[in-house]
Amino acid sequence: MAENGGRRLRLGIAGLGRGFSVMLPTLAAHPLLDVAAATDTRPEARARFEADFGGRGYETIEALCADDSLDAIYVATPHQFHAEHTVTAARAGRHVLVEKPMALTLDECTRMIDAAGEAGVHLIVGHSHSFDAPVAETRRLIASDVYGAPRMITALNYTDFVYRPRRPEEMDRAQGGGVVFSQAAHQIDIVRLFGGGMVETVYAATGDWDPARSTDGAYSAMLRFAGGATASLAYSGYGRFDSDEFCGWIGESGRPKDPEAYGNARRALADAGTAEAEVALKASRGYGGPAGAAKPAASDGRAHEHFGLFVVSCERGDLRPLPDRVLVYGEDERKTIALPPPAVPRAEVIDELHAAIVRGIPPVHSGEWGRATLEVCLALLRSADERREVALSLQVPVADFA
């Protein structure tokens, strides 16, 4: 976490849903941040926010963005609203941190980038798990050139994504539903950082294997990078094998996971019974609901977050990030680079936002970077539909981490 003695940012939140709930430990504890205002369509969520943060709750995004006391807006509304809400914030003169995926089309991404540029504000796309400290350390090792250039990247993640309670639009590709928009954005962002950013082509297949939960529930993809590196990606959201087994049973959030809880997501969904009950179950787990996340009182000692198994095979060594360390398999030795637990989970997201706004440091996860990641996501879907390799044209190289 940055220790720069800088001024605190005043942040407004657009959307108190899942993205906000996941970021709660960061937003509540980061020393360079004041969470000052929020908007959400649910009165109960706004009331909970006002009680937790002592900030103002607004009924509309326009009212939130008109608050001149705010430095930046965190856009955490549903995927299909990212473009509209980012443009609204930028035109109001607010810097923007927008959740992944950046948007649903490349034209929307370009409109967001243009709006930020015209307003002279920063646009940062995050969080994705490419902000995670083990990923940054692996990228540092790659950039050092001690182990040579990356040649092959393997990424694998198996979760229960499909069987978590969902609103109907979360299963609809046209509205940003399914695992490609929600999950591939993480995995692709990470492998782009490892591979140098410049993906040339994508060849992929998707899976829709449960008629009762019809959506893009799995994918496999091969990415070819400029310079010759390749990356193979696999993701399944069908809730059987759990790849957290490869990470010492540390879950995506950095907390320990009980392997005996196998099948809990399927059972909870079966108990809900109807589509209406499923939506109600999701709402109950949302911020402001009876089972929703609460503002944490202090750090809970978790490890760093992660997104499954990654192995980067370089010319003279293999690198494997884990929630608490990076394993290095060199020519003559195997060593461990230990990483201290985070004082604030996902602090790197706010660090990058703060560094851009206060210190003028160009962000790694810029609008152009986010658009390039979405280009790969869209190419993955197109390749799967058309059963052919798809070439890319909007990629950008990695800006070295500070």
Please tell me about this protein's structure.
The chain is of the alpha/beta class. The chain has helices at 18-29, 43-53, 61-65, 82-91, 106-119, 133-144, 179-195, 264-272, 275-285, 347-359, 367-386; strands at 9-14, 33-39, 56-58, 72-75, 95-98, 123-125, 150-158, 199-207, 218-225, 230-236, 309-314, 317-322, 325-329, 334-338, 390-391. The strands form 2 sheets. A 9-stranded mixed β-sheet has the order 14-13-12-11-7-10-9-8-15. A 6-stranded parallel β-sheet has the order 3-2-1-4-5-6, sandwiched between helices. It is 33% helix and 21% strand.
Keyphrases for this structure?
single chain; 402 residues; alpha/beta; six-stranded parallel beta sheet; 15 strands; 33% helix; globular
Q: Count the strands?
A: 15
Helical fraction equals 25-40%
| Fraction in beta strands | 15-25%
Strand order of the largest sheet: 14-13-12-11-7-10-9-8-15
Order of helices and strands: EHEHEHEHEHEHEHEEEHHEEEEHHE
Give me the Rg, rounded. 20 Å
Low-confidence stretches: none
Shape descriptor reads globular
Query: Which structural class do you get from the secondary structure elements?
Result: alpha/beta
DSSP helical segment count: 11
Task: Give a short account of the largest sheet.
Answer: 9 strands, mixed
